[in-house]
Write a structure and sequence with these properties.
By secondary structure, the chain is of the alpha+beta class. The protein has one domain: Immunoglobulin-like. Helices cover about 20% and strands about 30% of the residues. It contains three helices and ten strands; from the N terminus they run H-E-E-E-E-E-E-E-E-E-H-E-H. It has helices at about 5-15, 175-185, 195-215; strands spanning about 25-30, 40-45, 55-65, 75, 95-100, 105-115, 135-145, 150-155, 160-165, 185-190. Strands 3, 5, 6, 8, 9 and 10 form a six-stranded antiparallel sheet that branches. The protein has a four-stranded antiparallel sheet with strand order 1-2-7-4, with no helix packed on it. Mean pLDDT is about 85; it is low at about 5-20 and about 195-205.
């Protein structure tokens, strides 16, 4: 390889890590399972978004056996304020709105906010950094003691908005992010196994262990 070609390759490799990554929106910190009659929480996390000034994020919830609908055995508890830590807009609370919708036979938590701390246009854009200001909304799900079903949680790609200070102009990489959200399957949170199931598993454990040892012998 000629010297100038080697130099060019080294420059490309040096600049590669500086290329901006596509933003990622995900559901994080959800529990492995839930106990009927108790609440559980998780976060909607946005990393790598540049110049974010407003958003509209919809989290949907259904039961594996079918839609929950109004008056179901699980429901969203809409937050009155943004998260106190790691919020995308740094704890700024004005114009924050989060409400529950039951349209379409399931529950949806609709959260939106625009960032205007100085009170004058245009809106103020921020860059979302993992572990610093990456939480869009902290979601709480309440469940009834009668619920005996796994819950499915997902993000709505169609109603998703992540805009810059320029009206109706999305953040860089939004198309890729939206396609990824649409292609991602729901997050399943099953109920804690019933005590009878646990007893059966405990009763079967010695037999399974003995069978395994006999095979090894």
């Amino acid at each position: 390889m000629r010297p100038y070609a080697i130099a060019t390759a080294l420059v490309v490799l040096a600049l590669a890590p500086l290329a901006p990554a596509d933003p990622i929106l995900s559901l994080a910190n959800a529990p492995a399972d839930y106990t009927p009659g108790q609440s559980f929480s998780f976060d909607v996390v946005l990393t790598g978004a540049a110049d974010l000034a407003s958003y509209n994020v919809v989290v949907e919830m259904t039961a594996v056996s079918g839609a929950l609908g109004a008056g179901g055995d699980a429901w969203f508890v809409p937050p009155a304020d943004p998260p106190t830590e790691r919020y995308v807009f740094g704890g700024y609370s004005d114009y924050f709105l989060s409400q529950v919708s039951t349209a379409g036979g399931g529950y949806a938590l609709v959260t939106s906010h625009w960032n205007d701390p100085d009170g004058t246009p245009p809106l103020d854009g921020v860059d979302t950094v993992a572990g610093v200001n990456d939480i869009v909304v902290h979601v709480t799900v309440a469940t009834a003691a009668t619920l005996a079903d796994s819950l499915h949680l997902s993000l709505d790609a169609v109603l998703l908005e992540l805009d810059t200070p320029t009206a109706n102009v999305p953040v860089a990489g939004f198309d890729v992010l939206q396609a990824d959200v649409a292609a991602t399957g729901p997050l399943e949170v099953p109920e804690v196994p019933e005590p009878t199931v646990l007893l059966c598993l405990c009763a079967a454990a010695p037999a399974l262990l003995k069978r395994r040892r006999s095979r090894q012998g």
